[in-house]
Amino acid sequence: MAEVTVLQTITLTLRPCSPSDRADFIDLELDPEVMHFLSGGAVDHENTDPEDVTFLMPRGSEPYVWTARRTATNAFVGWFCLFPETQTLAEIGYRLRREDWGMGLATEGALALVNWGFRSAGYDRIAACTMAVNHGSRRVMEKIGMKHVRTSFPDFPAPIPGTEDGEVWYEVLRSDWNEDK
Predict the structure, then answer these.
(1) What is the predicted pLDDT for the residue at 49?
(2) What CATH class is the domain 7-176?
């Protein structure tokens, strides 16, 4: 596994997360729209342990999480992760502030991570999953060259609206990767 490093895009600087990012990460989880497809709404931090949920709640010490900030202003945009599942497979994820949706930033950051994953980390396959009804996230996956590979219907411990439509899995293979996207 390559060392997690700072990544630069046209608009964003992605750097390994640090404890100073904790408040920004928690603010994301307090936005009910940001968390809609993960927890059904804002996370109740009084009663939720990050270790007890099925989604990532970074706190600034996670080795595979990058904090995304606008390069020009250093304004917090969100975070991206590329978590190694095996030596050759990683799962990508991202969470952005609602104010930054619809600007292409999720695609921009995810492309940088996929590119790094294939070029520097040596992965052969990068996957992602989301609820089938999360059309925004699915569109990002498609824009970065991922293809839908399956839909599953897991038994969610605390189902939220839309889980009945399942979870979709996307992936891109290094052999199919076009880093000029």
Answers:
(1) 62
(2) alpha beta
